[in-house]
Amino acid sequence: MSTMVMELDFIEELRLRRWARENYVEPDKRSQKWHPIIHEEMEKKDNEAGSPFASPTYAWNS
Hints:
mainly alpha
C-alpha cells in the first residue's frame, strides 16, 4: 500500500512537531498512519539525553 504525503508549509510542520512532542508515545505504540514528520520528531525525542529509548551514540555516527 503506497501512501501519499502532502507537502507542508512551515507553520503546519511546526504544529506537527509540537503535537509529536506533546503526545509522545513509545516507539512500539506509534501508528504507521501518522505523518513522517511526527515519526521524525518522536525519534528525535527518543535520542535526547535521559530518554529510555535513546540509542547509544558512537563517534562514527556523529
